[in-house]
Amino acid sequence: MMRNVFLLLTAGLLFLAAIVSYRTFAAAPVAVTLPTPPQLIKVNSAELATNLSQSIRFKTVSNQDPQLFDLNEFIAFQNWLQQTYPDFYAVVKTQMLAGSTQLNIWQGSDQSLSPVVFLAHQDVVPADETANSGWIEPPFAGNIKDGFIWGRGAIDDKGSLIAMLEAANRLAASGYQPKRTLIFGFGHDEEVGGNGAKAIAALLQSQGIRPWAVFDEGGAITTNMPDIAGPVARIGVAEKGYLTLILTARATGGHSSTPPKTTALGGISRAIAAVEANPFEKKLDPVLIAMLQATAKSTENGFVKRMILSNLWLFGGLVEAQLLGSKSGSAILGTTIAPTILHAGTKENILPREAIAYINFRIAGRDSIESVISHISKAINNPDIEITISNPPGSEPTPISQIGTGPYAWLSKVITDGFPGTLIAPNTVPMATDSRHFTKITDDIYRFAPYTFDSSDLSRIHGLNERIGVDDFAKGVQVYYLMLERAGQIG
Question: What is the CB neighbour count within 10 angstroms for residue 10?
Answer without folding.
Answer: 10
